[in-house]
Write a structure and sequence with these properties.
- The protein is mostly helical.
- It has one domain (37-172).
- The protein contains 3 helices and no strands.
- It has helices at residues 2-15, 20-152, 158-172.
- The termini are far apart.
- The model has no long low-confidence stretch (mean pLDDT 83).
Length: 178
């Protein structure tokens, strides 16, 4: 009979006539359905949605933090790279300075050595000239004495010898100051 009653209600509902009992039945059924949904489905559904929302918010926060960390790391690497470049340029500049200083020192030392060698060569030439001049004077004097001895057939005294040497030198045009 229950089945018939439901069929009647469906027929009545489909025919467009609604009775108070049908409205009341549908309303109560709807409320029971809402309460059942709230108790069994709505709580877990909202809990699941809240968890999902929290997870997404956490993922977004984590992604933002990762992005900030990556940007900071990139800036740090850029600063380190600039410092490394600056240090490399400084090392290169120091090496150039050292090389230039060494080259300058070598040049200065070579110039000083050349100057010393020139002075030594000039001094050696001067001494050799003086020695040769003295030897020439002695030979001229000896030769003059020998000639004079042969001419005079006698030995000269030391003072006479000196005068004879000097006069012979003067005649040859050799100057003592050369």
């Amino acid at each position: 009979m229950c089945r018939n009653h439901m069929m009647n209600q469906l027929v009545i509902a489909s025919s467009g006539q609604t009775t108070f009992s049908t409205i009341l039945f549908v309303s109560v059924s709807f409320l029971v359905l809402l309460l059942a949904l709230k108790k069994f489905a709505w709580g877990p559904l909202t809990k699941m949605l809240d968890e999902r929302e929290n997870k997404i918010a956490g993922d977004i926060d984590s992604a933002e933090q990762s992005k900030i960390d990556a940007a900071n790391l990139a800036k740090q690497r850029e600063v380190e790279l600039k410092e490394a470049r600056t240090e490399a340029q400084s090392i290169i500049a120091q090496a150039k300075d050292v090389a230039e200083n060494n080259a300058h020192a070598i040049i200065v030392e070579a110039q000083e050595h050349a100057t010393r060698m020139k002075k030594q060569a000039k001094e050696d030439l001067r001494l050799e000239r003086e020695r040769l001049l003295a030897d020439a004077k002695k030979e001229v004097a000896d030769l003059s004495v020998e000639i004079a001895s042969k001419i005079l057939k006698k030995e000269l005294s030391a003072s006479a010898h000196q005068e004879l040497v000097q006069s012979s030198i003067d005649k040859l045009g050799v100057d003592d100051n050369e």
